[in-house]
Amino acid sequence: MSEEHPQHHFPTRDGVCPVAGEGLPSRAVNSGQYYHDYLGLDKILSAQKPVSKEKGAEAHEETLFIIIHQVHELWFKQILHEFESIREIFRQPKMPERLMSLICNRLHRVTEIQRILIEQLRVLETMTALDFLEFRNLLSPASGFQSVQFRILENTLGLPVASRVQYQSTSYHNFFSEEHQTPLQKSEREPSLLMLVVRWLERIPFLNYDGFDFWASYKQAVWDMMEKEKRAVEEDPALSDELRRINKKEVDKNYESFQLIFDEAKWNERLEKGDVRFSYKAIQAALLIYMYKDEPIFHMPFQMLNLFTEIDENLATWRYRHTMMVQRAIGMRVGTGGSSGYHYLRTTVGDRYKVFMDLFQLSSFLIPRKMLPVLPNKMKESMDFMWSTGDMASPSVPHQGARASGSGPSWPKKENVDADEADNTRHSFFST
């Protein structure tokens, strides 16, 4: 081999290079993991077994159909891996604040995976309805409804069993093997992310803090806002009598919507019926975070709640896109699993399948920044970061819970505080 064309050695499992010949050792193989084996590609790449091929007349599109669904299942596995890690963090009796960033990072990863799943449907849509008919009859009675991981994903997120549309008028458990019913039922019994988030919200101490009653102040701010809106409608000379009547009606509707959240007994009745999913205290805390999200201590909590909403939204988008794809592929035909096909899927696209539905509706109860109750100085200081004079070259840790003063970050009245002790010392609702 000339210098212009040097011979390259390609490693194999036994150290033999297929290009250079036998007996030439491969440093890459002998030194550690081999790509093919590490990824288990023998199993993965041999897992596509088109039924049409077994029947003697292979349908070209069936391989695509199988791979798309297998990739979905791999991504479901990763989402469940992220959810379980987040759930473990929430289960801690004292959750360190530094883990809030980790939670947000993993939730953001889930939203990115969801976007891939949504776009992946475009690849499957390259298979035409006529192509699908070449092997569709061979799939019965299997159905995408039987995706165990997707059902566990829904349960882990917090979808109540009562919110599920009954599949063929019976419990969804009946469409799974006994082997798969066990993990499904286990996922229903375990604390869901919804439940853990609600408990976390209920621990926030800022609803009543040092004489400041957030809920009473918020109510007063709402009524002041409503009175201002009424006066504006009544005194606007540009409005005709008809427009004035319509605008007054809109103001009254807004008033009624606020009454829903101010009546604790009615809220608990709706909670009992399943119309809402946050406890009364949790919805108050969520409102506090949303309205004062600019306060440093609420930056990450707001991002986290917003990411849960985004996950819900992405799930709804995926359901809708999947429903539209099925309608194009099979029209009004019955599904391979015996359901009404498109008509069944259409019932799953709606608010009943939104786990964090209360966060979607929270915007109904927000008020403009200029109308927000003014927080007491001591409370604002507790939500802020403290900076005090110190040696900038020495190790120091920023702290939430005191007035800013000086140039260097440090802990109050303590020196050489390690990170773990710092997390336990700082005033925080995460470990309250």
Q: Which structural category fits the helices and strands?
A: mainly alpha
- Number of helical regions: 19
Query: Looking at the structure, what is the overall shape?
Result: globular
Please state the CA-atom Rg, rounded to the nearest Å: 29 Å
**SS strand fraction:** under 5%
**What are the secondary-structure elements, in order, as H or E?**
HHHHHHHHHHEEHHHHHHHHEEEH
| Estimated helix fraction | 40-55%
- Mean pLDDT, rounded to whole units? 83
CA distance, first residue to last residue: 72 Å
Q: What are the salient characteristics of this protein?
A:
432 residues, 3-stranded antiparallel beta sheet, 19 helices, mainly alpha, two-stranded antiparallel ribbon, 3% strand
Give an overview in words.
With 432 residues, the protein is mostly helical. It has helices spanning 27-30, 35-38, 41-45, 51-54, 60-90, 98-124, 129-133, 148-157, 178-189, 193-202, 214-235, 241-262, 264-273, 280-291, 299-330, 342-347, 357-360, 377-382, 419-425, and strands at 208-209, 212-213, 385-388, 399-400, 408-409. A three-stranded antiparallel β-sheet has the order 4-3-5, with no helix packed on it. Mean pLDDT is 83; it is low at 1-6 and 391-429.
Topology:
Layout lengths: L26 H4 L4 H4 L2 H5 L5 H4 L5 H31 L7 H27 L4 H5 L14 H10 L20 H12 L3 H10 L5 E2 L2 E2 H22 L5 H22 L1 H10 L6 H12 L7 H32 L11 H6 L9 H4 L16 H6 L2 E4 L10 E2 L7 E2 L9 H7 L7
Antiparallel strand pairs: 1-2, 3-4, 3-5
